[in-house]
């Protein structure tokens, strides 16, 4: 009964009285890792947003690696314990973060998720989810793969952390689209744990194990960067259809020199900017959408210098 009453009190607070309950002016932005250009671009977006919010400050942190889920859990718990005004969170695991997000809800601290979602059992504990539609983005990459290499042949998938929300949608969407719309054989799926060096080594191994490979898909920034370097090192640039995900300088250069035929780039800046803005709206008592699509742009050698691409590259 006590837990039920706490939950009801928290729900009431979340709906009507955030500003009165906030015990600090800090909005904590907690991402999967601070050691990535993608997440640093999220940071830039968050910093841009907070400049227009004089009543709030912003902190930014993330574990050393995306696979350090326990460290991220501790960061969220610490933010709740210091009674921040709100949290913008990119959860590294769909289940492990739920108790921490629930704790924030019980303390009337609004949580806005970005990039990756959590399991349905936690859906009542956050206020909004801002992300690329990862399933649609994966399908887009698969369609581009088919358009470029044809509807038959062999491909490998270079994924990152199995079971992460974004990975489930992105790689799942890619895989399902390939199977439903072509006779392409997926020879293997590798998991880099979002480590560039691991992806490089895995790609070198894959190119050696499957010398007749026609295509390869790198599903996030460090994975695609490692994949691109391996393709170059193997002297296979331009000899197979290679598609990456995200848009740092390395990946842009791979597109320009033909190592990659394209990259699907998320609005990482927009995730940070809209994430902080959405928390501020909740704190002001405004209603927000439960899901906000931050979009994706497919960048190729032909459009990389056009405004639509330059607005999302970093």
From TrEMBL:
UniProt keyword Cytoplasm present: no
SUPFAM superfamilies: Periplasmic binding protein-like I
Matching InterPro entries: Peripla_BP_I, SBP_2_dom
Subcellular location: Cell envelope
The keyword Chloroplast belongs to this UniProt entry's keyword annotation: no
TM spans (from-to): none
Signal peptide location: 1-22
Span of domain Periplasmic binding protein: 27-286
Keywords per UniProt: Signal
One Gene Ontology molecular-function label: carbohydrate binding
Organism domain of life: Bacteria
GO cellular component terms listed in the entry, alphabetical order: cell envelope
Family: Belongs to the bacterial solute-binding protein 2 family.
Protein name: Ribose transport system substrate-binding protein
């Amino acid at each position: 009964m006590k837990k039920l009453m706490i939950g009801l009190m928290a729900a009431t607070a979340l709906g009507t009285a955030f500003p009165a309950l906030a015990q600090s002016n800090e909005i904590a932005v907690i991402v999967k890792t601070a050691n990535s250009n993608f997440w640093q671009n999220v940071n830039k977006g968050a910093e841009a947003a907070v400049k227009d919010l004089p009543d709030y400050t912003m902190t930014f942190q993330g574990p050393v690696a995306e696979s350090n889920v326990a460290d991220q859990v501790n960061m969220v718990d610490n933010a709740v314990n210091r009674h921040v005004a709100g949290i913008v969170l990119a959860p590294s695991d769909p289940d492990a973060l739920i108790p921490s997000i629930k704790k924030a809800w019980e303390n009337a601290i609004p949580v806005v998720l970005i990039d990756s979602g959590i399991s349905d059992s936690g859906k009542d504990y956050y206020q909004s989810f801002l992300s690329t539609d990862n399933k649609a983005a994966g399908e887009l990459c698969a369609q581009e793969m088919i358009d470029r290499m044809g509807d038959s042949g062999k491909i490998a998938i270079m994924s990152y952390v199995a079971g992460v929300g974004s990975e489930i949608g992105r790689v799942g969407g890619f895989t399902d689209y390939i199977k439903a719309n072509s006779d392409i054989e997926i020879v293997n799926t590798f998991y880099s744990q979002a480590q560039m060096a691991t992806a490089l080594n895995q790609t070198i191994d894959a190119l050696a194990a499957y010398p007749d490979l026609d295509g390869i898909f790198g599903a996030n920034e460090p994975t695609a960067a490692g994949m691109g370097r391996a393709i170059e090192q193997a002297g296979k640039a331009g000899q197979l259809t290679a598609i990456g995900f995200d848009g740092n300088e390395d990946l842009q250069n791979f597109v320009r020199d033909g190592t990659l035929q394209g990259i699907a780039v998320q609005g990482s800046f927009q995730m940070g900017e809209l994430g902080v803005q959405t928390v501020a709206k909740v704190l002001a008592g405004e209603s927000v959408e439960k899901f906000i699509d931050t979009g994706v742009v497919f960048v190729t050698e032909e459009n990389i210098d056009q405004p639509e691409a330059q607005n999302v590259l970093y």
